[in-house]
Amino acid sequence: MATMTMTAPSKQATELRKRRGVWLLLLLLVSALAVVSWWAFHRKTAAEANSNQYNWVAPEIRKITTEVNATGTVKLKTGAEVRVGAQLSGIVRRLNVTVGSHVNQGEVIAEIDSRPVMARIDQARTQLEQSEVSQAKAETDFARTQKLVEAGLVPAQQFDDAKTALEASKASVAAAQSGLAAAQVDLAYVDIRAPIAGTVASISTQQGETVAASFATPTFVTIIREAALEVIAMVDESDIGNVRQGERGIFTTETFPDHEFQGIVTRIAPVATIISGVVNYEVAISIERDLALLKPDMTANVNIHTSQHQAVLIPTKCIHRDGPLSFVYVQRPGAVPLKRVVSVGTRMANETEIVRGLGPNDRVQFETGVAAP
User: pTM above 0.70?
Assistant: First the structure.
């Protein structure tokens, strides 16, 4: 009896199924690779598109000046204000100046009525003449008495009296001479003269008034010395350590906001001035020119140039804030901009110094960009 077997067809079917599985796996791999390639290409294209829609700037490296900002006041220098008074009592016969007048050193500001002084001088001269006559008589009496004593005609006591009278007359002459000299000195005080050259700031006594100089010298005028203004800036304690004598200061005033005045730091107060709990130090700045435009007590906005150094600068608009941190967006070829934290330094009008976080080869996004994931 013959038998039939199915071995060959079963093996062929199994091999066919294996080949189909391999082709299916290869197809899936190719499809996956195509999807990944498309996604990477699309992402790169999108990043480049986003990158190209913003402006990019390169940091600029140059030397900048560090400044200390402060508020100050135009003040008179110590000793620049002189109060001119009268040494004599009397009527003000003439006043030769008004507020704002310019006076030269030695110029007559006012005159006191000289008649009382002239009367004292005449009296002192008369007293001197009387004393000189008395002295001449005493000298004659002394010489006569001396001869009589030598001849033994008068006692020695009479000689002593004549000698005493002569000494007294000499003292009287000396006193009269001193009185005349004092009266002549007073005559020199009749004309009140300017001790310094400057501008009359105030007048306290008017023509025709009577002044009394018995206990306190009455003030006639106050004169401000020429070129005697300086700026006193109040510098915060956090900045005072950077300020040195000889550094240049530039300031403006409320009256002349567009005019820059220049000066030099001349002194720094050794002790602080505390105002509303804020510790400040007074810094005096001399004024080099344009003094005629300034007046005492004007408010000044002061910038003191303390040092120069190389700095990395970018536009201030490139810097963004995230709480206490400052950051910028840095360009990456073929990728989204990178958010990078930076440390900022000196801030100027449109630029800011970057102390750490950027190099000269970086390019920074000028407008807000897309942060990197």
Answer: no
